[in-house]
Structure formats: C-alpha cells, structure tokens
C-alpha cells in the first residue's frame, strides 16, 4: 500500500498533467465580472483559445477571490 507522501505526490503529478492544458496560452484579457451568486466582482483571466479562469476563494466556487502578485505597482487584484 502506498504511503501518504506517495499518494500526495501522485495526486500532484495528476493535477500538473491536467493543468498543463493551460501551458503556453497567452493572456487575451483580464477584467472584473460580477458573480451572479454573490453579487461581488471577481477577476477573470481570459486566455487565447477561449479559455477563461475565474478566480475563486475555494474549489467549490463559494465566493470570488483575489490574486496576489510580486508586481510593485500592483501587489494584488482584490475582490470587489
């Protein structure tokens, strides 16, 4: 039976493979959009090829989220 570390390692490898569909996609546009369930505005990152990324506070999509950056002039894109 696999130990806990190996299970987590396998899980990370699987999700890295799934997420790789986003590799080398260029950002087409970044904008704020109102979430229909929370009435808050969250960040949307639209990529070439029709991919859209909605920044959420958790993996169930319970609320919009914020993006923190290492950009001095733009330390974060907050939820509003």
Largest sheet: 3 strands, antiparallel
* Biggest β-sheet: strands ordered side by side in the sheet: 1-2-3
Helices, by number, come to 1
β-strand number: 5
End-to-end CA span: 47 Å
Radius of gyration: 16 Å
Which regions contain 5 or more consecutive residues with pLDDT less than 50?
none
| Percentage beta strand | 25-35%
Shape from CA axes?
A: extended
What portion of residues is helical? Answer: 10-25%
- Average pLDDT taken over every residue: 93
Structural category is alpha+beta
Order of helices and strands: HEEEEE
Please write out the topology.
Blueprint: H1 4-19, E1 27-34, E2 41-47, E3 52-54, E4 67-71, E5 74-77
Antiparallel strand pairs: 1-2, 2-3, 4-5
Describe this structure in words.
This protein is α+β, with helices and mostly antiparallel strands. The chain is built from one helix and five strands. It has one helix at about 5-20; strands at about 25-35, 40-45, 50-55, 65-70, 75. The mean pLDDT is about 95.
Descriptors for this entry?
alpha+beta, two-stranded antiparallel sheet, 3-stranded antiparallel beta sheet, single chain, 80 residues
Quick recap:
With 80 residues, the protein is an alpha+beta fold.
């Amino acid at each position: 039976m696999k130990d806990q570390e190996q299970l987590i390692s396998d899980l990370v490898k699987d999700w890295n493979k799934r997420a790789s569909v986003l590799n080398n996609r260029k950002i087409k546009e970044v904008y704020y959009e109102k979430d229909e369930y929370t009435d808050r505005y969250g960040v949307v990152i639209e990529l070439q090829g029709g991919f859209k990324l909605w920044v959420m506070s958790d993996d169930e999509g319970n609320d919009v989220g914020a993006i923190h950056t290492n950009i001095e002039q733009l330390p974060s894109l907050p939820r509003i």
